[in-house]
Amino acid sequence: MHSITEALLNRSSEPRLKAPAPPQDVLDLALACAARAPDHALLRPWRYLVIEGEGLERLGELFEASAPAGASDAQRQKLRKAPLRAPMVLVAIASPVSHPKVPEYEQEYACAASAAYLVLALQAEGYGAMWRSGEVSDNDQVCKGLGLGDRESIVGFIYVGTVDSEKPPVPRPEISEFTSRWPQ
């Protein structure tokens, strides 16, 4: 089995992460892999924010400030602590450009592929990652606080670090559960 195939088959979301985060050389390598994602017309419609250290606390404050009116203290505290679950958070941002042949949704797909390559590269280098999204990803206050432009959107918050503890394997579907032939 090829090492790439093995990495894909062993990929796993890792919710329990601790320091250290990847050093700059490993992060640069993973980001170089992200830049190799399929991308119609070579538009590179993505960008990443790297958040560590004090930035994680500021991100938590931003998450907390985005809580809906009527949120409980426990809900606000959970939002505030969320970024502290890992020593590094990478924000994958779809940054579409106007193009006559490449619609924005296709550019968002390219950003998602880029983020998936990033996660795989980090895992291949010995780090764990957890791709998270949810309400904070679509929150206007969070997007503005992170400096997103009008047409940009958050594809995911990728929590990164050293795997803290092994988790049980996740059951994987049988190929026949999601594949069919056409025409039948």
UniProtKB/TrEMBL annotation:
Keywords: Flavoprotein, FMN, NAD, NADP, Oxidoreductase
Residues annotated as binding FMN: 11-13, 36, 40, 131-133
SUPFAM superfamilies: FMN-dependent nitroreductase-like
CC cofactor note: Binds 1 FMN per subunit.
EC class: oxidoreductase
Family to which this protein belongs: Belongs to the nitroreductase family.
Protein's name according to its UniProt entry: Putative NAD(P)H nitroreductase
UniProt source species: Marinobacter segnicrescens
